[in-house]
Amino acid sequence: MARNKESNLGRVRKLVGDERKFLWNPLSNIILVARIKGNVSEKKLRNAINKTKEIHPLLASRVVYDQDNEAYFHTDNVPEIPFRVVEWKSDNQWQEELMYENRIPFKLFEGPLIRFVLIKSQQVSDFMVYCQHSISDGRGLVYLIRDILLNTTLPDREVKQLPIPPTLSSEGLYPYVPKKDSLKKSLTKSVKKFMINRMNKNWRKDITTFDQEDFENIHKVYWQKNEYRIELMELSEDQTTNLVTKCREHDVTVNSALTVAFLAAHYHISGPFKGKKRIVALPIDLRKRMNVSDVFCLYISRVLLKFDYKVKHSFWQNVKRFHDTATNEIKSANLFEPLLTIEQMDSTLIDAIASFGILAEIVPPEFTRYGKLSTFASKKKNEAIKLAHRFLKLSPGTVMTNLGKPDVPNVYGEMQIEKMYFAPSTDERFPLVIGALTAGGKLVVNP
Prior knowledge:
It is a single chain. The protein is an alpha+beta fold. Helix content is 38%, strand content 19%. The chain is built from 14 helices and 15 strands. The strands form three sheets. Strands 5-6-7-2-13-12 form a six-stranded mixed β-sheet, with helices on both faces. A six-stranded mixed β-sheet has the order 8-15-14-11-9-10, with helices on one face. The chain has a three-stranded antiparallel β-sheet with strand order 1-4-3, with no helix packed on it. Strand 12 (411-412) and strand 13 (415-423) form a beta hairpin. Helix 1 (17-23) packs parallel to helix 12 and helix 9 (254-270) packs across helix 10. The radius of gyration is 22 Å and the shape is globular.
C-alpha cells in the first residue's frame, strides 16, 4: 500500500466500514444534476463552491492511510475542486458528460473526491455534481447543491462548519444501540462475530493491499468495456401531484408505487425475478433518526425484503402488499446492524472484496498491474475472492433509491430549479437500479 506521509494535520475523522466499501470501487460514484432556469454566473458559482467547503469539510478532502492501514479523511494539501464549464447543446447532454466523468478515476490519496460540471446557456443550465460515494449519499448531494446555490446568490452570507455527526460505527452509534438483546439475538451476534473473526484470520494469512495504480488499472478496464446508460421518466407537476394524491388514497407511499411499477414492468417484459433476485433493497436515510443536520456525508443504512409481483392481483393490491411489507421491515429492522457488522471486518479485506475481488480478473496483460492483479484473482481460495463472488450471487434484483421531495428552496435569486436528475451508483449485477427525486414540483425517475 502506497501511503501518505502520516500526520494529523487536516484530519477530519476515520472512515467507517461502509465508506471503505465504496472507496476503491470504480462503479461507486453518484451523480446529481440540477436544471436551472436563468443565467448562472460561472465566477459566482466557483466562488460559492469554495465557500461551501467551510460548511462541509468532506467537499475538499482526500484519504490518508496510516501504518495500520486505517483510513482517515484529511483536508490538508487538497487541490482545487475540478469545475468544468461546457456549452449547452441538448437536454440530455448531462448524460454524455456523466460518461466522460466516469472515465476519469479519482485520486484517492490526493483528492478531492468530487467534481462539478456546468452545462451552460443563457436561458437554462445543468449543474452537475459527480461524487465518490464514500463521502456522500444522494440526500447529501441535494443539501450540497442547495448550499452552493445559496452562496451563489448571497456571497456575503456568514457560514460555518456543520458539526460532524456521530460516525456510523460502534463508537458513534453506541448511544443509539439497545443495551440488551434477546438471547436469540445474542447467540446470532456471537456466531456472526466468530465467522467474521475466522474470515479475518484467513485473510491475514494471505493478505494483499492495493494502491492508486491498482485502482486505476481496474477503473480503466471497467470503463473501457462499460457505459452508464440512463432511461428517463419525467412527470409534469400535475402528474406528480396526481400520483401523490392517488398514493394517499390507497394509504401507500410514492416510493412503494414506483418500486412495484418497475417490478410489474420487469415481470411483463422479462418475467418474474427468481432466487435472490427477488430481493428488493431500500436505502434508508439516517439523518432524521440520528437527529443530525443537513450534513454532506454518507449517512444511510438499508433494508432488504423479498417480494414477488403477483399478476393475478391488481396493481394497487400489489403496491399495498409491498408497502406493508416494507413498513414492517423498516420498523423491525436494526438499521445499525449492517454498519456494525462490516466494522468487524479487517479494513483491507473490505477494500479487497468491494472491488478487486471481482474486477482484478478482468485486467488484461498489457496493463501495468496485470501481474499483481491476475495473481490475486487466481487465488480462488483467498478469503476476499471467495467473499466477493459470494456477495455477487446474493446481490438483490432491485435497488430503489427515492430521495423524495427534500425540503429545499427551488428559487435562488434569479435562478430557479426546474427539476433534478439523480443517478445512483450501479453495475450489471443489479437488473433494476432506480433513482428518483422530486424537485421543482416534478418527479424524475432514472431506471
